[in-house]
Fold each of these.
Amino acid sequence: MRSYIALLGLILTLSGQFNMLLAGKKHSCEKLLADLGDAQSKFIYCATTKSVPVNLCEGCVDLYRNLTNDYGNLIANANCSKRYLNSDRINIVATTQGILTSLWQKANCENCFRDNFWIVYSDNSTKLQNCLESASSDLVCFKCKNDYVSLNDFYLSMEKKVGGSVCFDLQDNMNRTRLNWSKTLKCCQREVKLTNFLIAVGVVVLLPIFTFYITAVVVTKRREANHGLLNEQEPELDAPSTSTLITAAVLSTSTEDPVAISARTEKIANVLIGAGTHLLDESSDEEPPRGKKVAHSPASDYSSDDEPLEKPKRA
Ligand SMILES: *[C@@H]1O[C@H](CO)[C@@H](O)[C@H](O)[C@H]1NC(C)=O
Ligand SMILES: *[C@@H]1O[C@H](CO)[C@@H](O)[C@H](O)[C@H]1NC(C)=O
Ligand SMILES: *[C@@H]1O[C@H](CO)[C@@H](O)[C@H](O)[C@H]1NC(C)=O
Ligand SMILES: *[C@@H]1O[C@H](CO)[C@@H](O)[C@H](O)[C@H]1NC(C)=O
Ligand SMILES: *[C@@H]1O[C@H](CO)[C@@H](O)[C@H](O)[C@H]1NC(C)=O
């Protein structure tokens, strides 16, 4: 029933237009020109009002189709086209039409309607928008990442297919979506934060190991410097020196044989100790007898030695 009414309406409309065309040729050309002017102004109004965010291709496609139809009707009529096109140097009708057509082509608008690009993009984009609006702000990056990646992947595949000239509506929308994702929602920063976190964890794990080795090196070097002292106090503990072996293993740059080093240091230590004890013995043993000898013995010894000698002589 509905389709019957629609068909009837179409027949009436077509017959009406046919009657108008028959009615008068002058009228017809003016009517065609007026229709074209009307379509142009409507399209310009649409393009200007839907410029930010760009919604030219999808938002004005019906008006653009009407515009090209009206222009086609005008040039299809040989009498009208002769009258309005190439009639003077400015050629206003062709110029305004050319400006609007080039705007449409510059925006690659026809690529929106190729291979269902706009529909698939729009489905993916709506899914992402719904996710962004429903997710809580601290989980939004995590929850919506799959939707974002599939939209971005689809965009990249589309870009490949059309050789980079993606319809401008979708270019603009993808641009905004990416900016929103990285700048407003800071989802890329959170990824950077995650890597920073992993680096920090790595440092925290490795730091104690480095600290242990550095401490081991420092401690063993100090022990070596104090080798003599330690030898004096605890000779058995310090023996061929585990500390020297650790140092050699950790640094693994030592060219000298650790046993030789420890042997040498032990020798030095022994010499020092020997010298020290000798000095101590000399000072403690020699001085008191010297004093005695100087103070008492010459007189007493002499007298005791002389007296017995003198006594037998006298006796
Ligand atoms: C396009 O033109 C047709 C007939 O000329 C009209 O019915 C339709 O409303 C126009 N479309 C728009 C979006 O104005
Ligand atoms: C153009 O005008 C001439 C006469 O002025 C007429 O004979 C002819 O049929 C017209 N052509 C069209 C396509 O209207
Ligand atoms: C998103 O795009 C992919 C193609 O990359 C498509 O297979 C999928 O159906 C789209 N998702 C939605 C929700 O439309
Ligand atoms: C994307 O947006 C930025 C900032 O608004 C702008 O400078 C750049 O030209 C835009 N790129 C495209 C392809 O629209
Ligand atoms: C940017 O993200 C927010 C998420 O809170 C969302 O509400 C908004 O619609 C997004 N804007 C665009 C242009 O994607």
Note: Residues 276-315 have pLDDT under 50 and may be disordered.
Amino acid sequence: MRLLTLLITLLSFLLHTLATPLPPSPAFPPDTERYPIDRHSLLLHFMTDTTGLENLYPNGWPEWAKFDSRLQFTILMQEGRWQCAAEWTPGVLPGEGVFLPCALRQDGGKGTGVEKREGLSAIEGRGIIEDKTEVQFTLRRWYGLGVRRPEISVMLGIRRNVTLDDESHEIWYGERPLYSSQSGPMFCTLGPPLDGMRCSDLDGPLAINSTRVGGG
Ligand SMILES: *[C@@H]1O[C@H](CO)[C@@H](O)[C@H](O)[C@H]1NC(C)=O
Ligand SMILES: *[C@@H]1O[C@H](CO)[C@@H](O)[C@H](O)[C@H]1NC(C)=O
């Protein structure tokens, strides 16, 4: 009898649990923007330690074949796609606290479909003066997976300085690490001899979450 009571109690508890609706998934905080990076737009290219032609060049890279490290990507915001690119001396990032400009693509790079699917914008719907809005990016070393070559372990920061219709400014900032591992977000392949390493974004959403950090 007691066992039956216990079973009934257990059953009603289970039924109750099942009937209780799941809590709604947490909404984005209102002061959040999310900027998707265009799929496969990210390219990181840098010199590897070895050339791939050790017999021919036992002392490493010949001068004529050396090249600077390069990162490029396009990132989607309300006003369209921003093209960002930087080159720097191998093994040395552009400099902590240095912000590099991104350029708004003039070739009709707007993609409302992507915005609706992946983007999130606290600014959307408010008027923006596009030619007074600036986007910049910064790179700093990231040690989340230990000490690695700077190129494949960086924190990418995006700063957006929005000028609104009333001429007020809002500064938004967000960052995310870029590294290469089995689960991404970057996938790197060794090129032919003297081509170094090329990394791109794996399939899957690669986005930067951003919050308002200032303005007036
Ligand atoms: C934001 O942009 C405006 C207009 O170009 C400029 O006057 C202001 O100094 C910028 N602010 C920052 C923090 O970059
Ligand atoms: C951005 O925010 C979304 C929603 O909160 C979260 O799922 C995602 O992991 C965040 N991405 C990064 C790179 O922080």
Note: The chain has one domain: 29-215.
